[in-house]
Design goal:
14 strands, 33% helix, alpha+beta, 4-stranded antiparallel beta sheet, homodimer, Arc Repressor Mutant, subunit A, Jelly Rolls, DNA-binding
Chain lengths: 314, 314
DNA sequence: CGCCAATTTGAGTCCCATCAATATTTGTGG
DNA sequence: CCACAAATATTGATGGGACTCAAATTGGCG
């Protein structure tokens, strides 16, 4: 239902308007077999900044145009090792990024969606370190890195904004790493759903009811779990009453629980607070959470605690 | 022995030379109690680029100076929530970065050392999301973000280079996340040591014999393991003969093993190769590794495999 | 309908966290 | 310098959470 934005009617006009300063020999995007429909849309700098949630007051940006490209589900935006030429901004659709290890196993690293920036990892080394695959039909805006670079030191604000976007991306990765190493399986899945809901609502979709665009397998890879564990945990959360699951349809019932639940970290992982760390003003919210978070004994599984939790939550 | 670079003699000269375009009101770095010795050194743009491994051919950079600041082991370069004003480049010394959760537990995210850039996560939101703590006495170069920003669109190359550095940082995080979710405890520790060795040798130190600057606790937090597991794994690797461990002294015997060892990932995590992924030219090295990697049965622990492995390795 | 992929569910096993105890090192003050 | 305390590491025993193997079920699609 909700998550696939109705894409604008696709007419296959191939005449693409390009600003004079756009990279001349427009990148051949892929040597991969298969048909691809070049989008009929173009965006100017203002559109892009809006998409990225960047404030850009200058009004010179109207003349600088960027090409849209359509990808069908399953197609790759870029592959590992491919020469890096473009950054890409997701206009609509859902993707995954990941790496492939020596055994052919895929390791999913992120699920980009509208407004996300793809290809940052290619700047270093001029070569993509990850691959990006469309999970649904996608509309992607290409930003030739050369163009991007030129614009950066023409419009100071823009440059600043790009640093900000990269910083945000870095933050996400860190949050992810933190989650991966500190939380148990149940909490991982819970936060995964919570984060999805939040991102969806930021995009204007429903954050309470949505479809998963990715397989259980991809979720498992992303969270560092076995596929069976993901499945079991989903049903457990369902039976707990905090979500509803029907195949890939998800309905979030208790968002707070999903966001705050974590397994009990024993005193073991507590590192002595170093020296002169004044208590400082911990955010008021933090304090509340500390007391309200439903902390489950590590000795029980979610399923066994239905009643126990029902008491806590009601 | 090796890892603590002999710091230049510290004279407390407070007269800091500043370029005219450097930020006027120089940032008050910390409201934290304790004594801090302002460094007597300053670096120009060229020094910094060299430190960051950036090629910067322009010769205008000599006049732009950046302040050095000394931190003693245990001091914090910045705290979580602190207003973001400076990026910081590690000139010498060893640090850790991390976040503190609701329970006061620290989650270690990285171990920056010479040449690394600190504070990127603060660009977004103008506020530090992580804290950075000196593990040893450190010499840090402050780069006021405002100055940095100004320089960026003055020197095009420099801007490019900064994007590159941020891209590299992002790559590291991704590699980390990938490792955290895909590897077992033994492989985590092995790769941790391997990565340390590689970074040390890149810095000109010995990559084979070095001191750990961090506690087992911090390693455990970084790798998402229990401290006991780290300890046990170290002794296991020691008894395997691939490393030597004596407290925080590490000697790497079999670097290849450390780098390539991983637990057997079952078919479970194998995702069907999507569509038209031509076999492509996999790097020759990859193929070799695929066959040479010592893959251990998941059913045994390192300790139990001494002989078995000895056979494989010899 | 029949095939294949995705998902669910069950049973068994193992890796790793946990608890506990000891050893070693570091730091501090007398 | 030594003694005492606190932090840091090591080692063992144990249990549980998540992986593994296996089979059943569902859903998609030609």
């Amino acid at each position: 239902m909700f998550l696939v934005p109705t894409s604008a009617p696709a007419s296959n006009i191939e005449s693409i308007a390009l600003a004079p300063n756009a990279h001349a020999n427009f990148p051949s995007l892929s040597n991969e077999a298969g048909w691809r429909c070049k989008g009929d849309l173009w965006s100017n700098l203002h559109d892009i900044c809006e998409l990225l949630n960047i404030r850009f007051s200058s009004n010179k940006g109207k003349e600088i145009l960027f090409q849209h490209v359509r990808y069908k589900a399953g197609q790759k935006i870029h592959k590992i090792g491919q020469h890096f030429e473009n950054l890409a901004i997701v206009n609509c659709g859902f993707l995954k990024t990941g790496v492939i290890d020596e055994y052919g196993s895929e390791q999913v690293l992120s699920f980009p969606m509208k407004g996300d920036l793809l290809g940052i990892d290619g700047i270093y080394n001029q070569c993509h370190a990850t691959e990006a695959v469309a999970l649904s039909d996608c509309d992607i805006i290409l930003v030739p890195y050369k163009t991007f670079s030129t614009l950066g030191h023409t419009y100071a604000e823009l440059e600043q904004a790009m640093f900000s976007v990269m910083s945000r991306e870095l933050l996400r990765e860190r949050t992810m790493a933190s989650m991966l190493s500190a939380l148990g399986a149940e909490a991982k899945v819970a936060r995964f759903l919570s984060n999805l809901g939040i991102r969806f609502s930021e995009l204007g979709y429903s954050g309470k009811v949505f479809n998963l665009r990715m397989t259980r397998h991809e979720i498992a890879s992303y969270l560092g779990l076995a596929i069976e564990t993901v499945s079991r945990t989903l049903t457990a959360l369902h039976e707990l009453g905090v979500i509803k699951v029907d195949q890939r349809q998800i309905a979030i019932i208790d968002a707070l629980f999903l966001k705050t639940f974590r397994r009990l970290p024993s005193t073991r992982s507590r590192i002595k607070v170093t020296q002169m760390t004044a208590p400082k003003v911990t955010r008021s919210l933090t304090k509340n959470i500390t007391q309200k978070v439903p902390v489950l004994s590590a000795k029980n599984t979610l399923l066994q605690q239905n009643k126990e939790l029902a008491n806590i939550l009601n």
